[in-house]
Amino acid sequence: MDTQVLTWIKRTPKVMADERQRQKIEQAGYLLEELEASKAQIMLPSVVVAEYLSAIAPGDRGNVLAELSEQFWIVPFDQKDTITAARLFDFGQTTRKKGQVNSRRVLRADSLIVATIKNHGAREFYCEDAGCCGLAREVGLTAKPLPTIAPSLFSGGT
Fold first, then answer.
1. Which CATH number does the domain 3-146 belong to among 3.40.50.1010, 3.30.420.10, 3.40.50.1820, 3.40.50.2300?
2. Which residues of 8-38 are buried (b: 16+ CB within 10 A; e: fewer)?
3. Could you state, in order of their start, the residue ranges of all structural domains in the chain?
4. What are the tens digits of pLDDT across the range 40-86?
């Protein structure tokens, strides 16, 4: 999953959240419920973890990392991922809109994230960003959005 999906999974609804954010938080909860019910191993690229931790108070980062490590399989970006990431960056340069603020940085991070999970055996990738989903599809991953309804509505649960 990408950083935004992780953020929505870990965030609780707050009064400050607007309607769209509250909806995404709810959908992320559905995703986590679905993955845990299916006993899926949930992979988090270390790049996603680093991005997520950058928004956490420095004194809390160790505890948050320990919590993430218990809930998810954190996989590193390593040497075998470098060529895949470079290829994805090249591909993304041809498909993304030019001239947008931070577009190269976002593309670079997305390339690292997708390369990491692809080379660690993921088959599915959950994201809400069209560009990142396009990178995932480019390397044969099934890119999926957040579910819009609770899985328990169809599984006979309450």
1. 3.40.50.1010
2. bbbeeeeeeeeeeeeebbbbbbbbbbbbeee
3. 3-146
4. 889 999 999 999 999 999 999 999 999 999 999 999 999 999 999 99
